[in-house]
Specification:
Blueprint lengths: L13 H38 L8 H17 L6 E5 L3 E7 H4 L12 H11 L4 E8 L13 H19 L7 E5 L12 H7 L1 E10 L4
Parallel strand pairs: 3-4
Antiparallel strand pairs: 1-2, 2-5, 3-5
Length: 214
């Protein structure tokens, strides 16, 4: 029986295989590049959207208006030697003396200070700024069961003022924080009775930067 012969068709030249591989690779490359570019565009868009929203800074006049209103209240109620205010780079500092706020070595707010805190809270409701409450003492050591050191005393005083503003005067708790510094941030010399009295204080700082979204 005669053997059958099969003829093979002409094979593609080698350069055609190389060319098709190159086209495929390029196609995959451009698809990948487009995908990555699309992701980056989204990320950059989100990033620059955030950049377009700078923090809102309260007007200096608003802080000064608040300071003048509180100063007027202090004058009308003979509290000018117990409430001090100043504006610095942080914002408005409202300094309340220990003699106004607490008994010596204690952290419960005196009844006479409650109306003052209510007035301050009412004024602060007109702003949306963050508020920091700082407690400070002099360098005279305290060693009681409740307050082993000035750290505990200063922190508890600051927290009690914070709780009053939130629980009794309905300020937004997300706006307020409290901190105690003990005797470590004096504003006067602790070598004199007058200086130590100045150092025993609670300070409400109304920050210049407002809450996000306002």
């Amino acid at each position: 029986m005669a053997e059958k012969k099969f003829k093979l068709g002409r094979s593609s030249p080698p350069w055609m295989l190389t060319y098709s591989d190159m086209v495929t690779i390029l196609l995959v490359f451009f698809v990948l590049l487009f995908t990555l570019s699309d992701i980056n565009i989204v990320k950059f868009s989100q990033y620059f959207q955030k950049m377009k929203k700078p923090p809102v800074v309260v007007d200096e006049q608003q802080l000064r208006r608040l300071m003048l209103e509180l100063a007027q209240y202090a004058k009308e109620h003979n509290l000018e030697d117990k409430i001090y205010m100043e504006i610095d780079e942080k914002g408005l500092n409202i300094r309340l003396t220990e003699s106004l706020m607490f008994k010596s070595g204690e952290a419960e707010i005196l009844p006479g200070a409650l109306p003052i805190l209510s007035i301050i809270a009412d004024k602060l409701k007109n702003l949306n700024n963050q508020i920091i409450i700082e407690g400070h003492t002099d360098n005279v050591p305290i060693r009681t069961e409740r307050f082993p050191s000035n750290w505990e005393l200063s922190v508890t005083r600051a927290v009690n003022v914070l709780k009053n503003l939130i629980e009794k005067n309905n300020l937004d708790p997300t706006r307020i924080s409290a901190a105690g510094y003990g005797e470590h941030k004096p504003i006067a010399s602790n070598k004199t009775a007058e200086g130590r009295a100045k150092n025993r204080r609670v300070v409400l700082i109304v920050l210049r930067q407002r809450l996000k979204g306002f």
